[in-house]
Design brief:
- By secondary structure, the protein is mainly beta.
- The chain has 1 helix and 20 strands.
- The protein has one helix spanning 159-170; strands spanning 2-8, 12-19, 22-29, 34-41, 47-52, 60-66, 69-74, 85-90, 96-101, 104-109, 112-119, 122-129, 150-153, 177-183, 186-195, 198-207, 212-221, 229-232, 235-240, 244-249.
- Strands 13-14-15-16-17 form a 5-stranded antiparallel beta sheet, with no helix packed on it. The protein has a 4-stranded antiparallel beta sheet with strand order 1-20-19-18, with no helix packed on it.
- It starts with a strand and ends with a strand.
- Residues 132-146 have low confidence and may be disordered.
């Protein structure tokens, strides 16, 4: 398979969001207590912008990408789970186009951003038309196809079938759970083996004749995860060793 994306970041890739032809990553450096955001164009594999810190705060987190805007929530601390503000950024430049203190994201549809805030424990809603704020005439890009990866725990009736497939192909005993997807005449399986007192998470890709195209060790930990990979616009995407963002054309 042709590797299309491979970028390593200074901190841990904490969260990702996808929209149009973009992926934005939320990266946290726990030693410096810095959170930053980086945007990758999935069509080219290039970083559009990186190390963006829209505010000097650890308490920022991704909401999502809608059309050509990126939304980021602001928090006061981890003791207060409710957001206390919203930042609106232009996806192509990373520039802040609006700060909405004390407002929370509710919905975005047909260029209308709906936000709300609580007054006397009751929600007060407000609509904002964002299309008029755009500084250029960028055409809306097509929304990427999202392929549903299925998570099968050991208790699933489908797990033994995948266990046998992995044992016959790799001579390993998969444990705990697998993430599974069939797409583009390929089989993709994220599986775990227990070795050296840790769970080793591998990502396997084969074709229909069971030829191994990729078998990459992507993480070692004391537990297992979920949503260990995704496929957008026919590109297999995953995080490796918490800091590396990798993509292969299927």
């Amino acid at each position: 398979m042709n590797e299309k994306i491979n970028h390593t970041f200074q901190g841990k890739i904490w969260n990702t969001t996808f929209g149009s032809d973009y992926c934005v990553l939320e990266i946290r450096d726990e030693t410096t207590r810095q959170v930053s955001f980086s945007c990758i164009n999935l069509l080219t594999g290039n970083i559009l912008w990186e190390n963006l810190r829209p505010e000097k705060s650890w308490w920022l987190s991704l909401v999502g990408i809608f059309d050509k805007f990126l939304f980021v929530h602001k928090y006061s601390s981890n003791q207060k789970p409710e957001p206390e503000g919203l930042l609106v950024l232009a996806i192509e430049s990373g520039e802040i186009v609006m700060k909405l203190d004390n407002w929370i994201f509710f919905n975005y549809e047909e260029n209308i951003l709906t936000i709300y805030q609580l007054q006397n424990s009751q929600p007060i809603y407000k609509d904002i038309i964002l299309e008029k704020m755009a500084e250029n005439n960028i055409d809306f890009l097509s929304i990427l196809d999202i392929n549903a990866v299925i998570h099968y725990p050991e208790t699933s009736p489908h797990f033994p079938t995948i266990f046998k497939f992995l044992y016959r192909l790799l001579k390993i005993d998969a444990v705990k759970a697998v993430d599974y997807l069939e797409i583009s005449n390929k089989i993709i399986i994220s599986y775990y083996i227990y070795r050296d007192k840790s769970f080793q998470n591998y990502l396997l890709v084969t074709n229909r004749t069971h030829e191994i195209l990729l078998n990459d060790l992507i993480a070692e930990s004391e537990g297992i995860g979920i949503d260990t990979f995704t496929v957008k616009s026919d590109i297999l995407l995953y995080v490796k060793n918490q800091t590396q963002f990798v993509g292969y054309r299927l």
